[in-house]
Design a protein that fits this description.
alpha/beta, Rossmann fold, 5 helices, 47% helix, 21% strand, DNA-binding, two-component regulatory system, transferase, Response regulator, Sig_transdc_resp-reg_receiver
Length: 120
């Protein structure tokens, strides 16, 4: 079984783009548009790494991150945000997120980070 990535973003275009990029790299990918979908996929498929957007209607990224860590304390999470809210970014790091990318991010930088962390 290959390395599995869960992409959590309420923006369809971003999910599709990231899905295509990481499938082409040989990863098994899952997509979630909201927190409930993300948690269901995490329980069922046990992804190695999660790309998590912070601003998601219904359940924000902080709450999703906490619940993902409850499901699997070792799950690797990279945060994506369109907002430069340093306090929120700091809180995600305290909760175990590896790093964050501010949108719009360089896809090559994100690919390199995923490759680095998914095999670590």
């Amino acid at each position: 079984m290959g390395n599995k990535i869960l992409i959590v973003d309420d923006q369809y275009g971003i999910r599709i783009l990231l899905n295509e990029v990481f499938q082409r790299e040989g990863y098994v990918t899952y997509q979630a548009a909201n927190g409930m979908q993300a948690l269901e996929i995490a329980r069922k498929h046990h992804p190695n790494l999660v790309l998590l957007d912070m601003k998601i209607p219904g359940m924000d990224g902080i709450e999703i991150l906490k619940r993902l860590k409850d499901i699997d304390p070792d799950i690797k999470v990279i945060i994506m945000t369109a907002y430069g809210e340093l306090d929120m970014i700091q809180e995600t790091k305290e909760l175990g997120a590896l790093m964050h990318f501010a949108k719009p991010f360089d896809i090559d930088d994100l690919r390199a980070a995923v490759k680095k962390y998914i095999t670590a």
